[in-house]
Amino acid sequence: HGTFSSTMGSYGALGSTEWGREFLAAAFARYDVVLGFDHPTLSVDPFANATDLLAALERLGWAHPPEIDAVAFSRGGLVFRSLVEQL
Asked: H/E element holding 73?
């Protein structure tokens, strides 16, 4: 999610339109896990947020390394970039 926002604030409205509900249904059918990651946007460095995200993903206990597709923008994009490039 972006600065000053949250997962619900950024993506919560998907359930209110037919297109959004179809998108969510397709995601839930295709993926083992669909998750949103809420992170502090100004008080914590994106790398620290990425470290927290990695810890959350590791707690899911994957049998094999996961294949991850991400939808991110703004600050969330910086967090995911830190995860991919630095962790």
From this structure: none
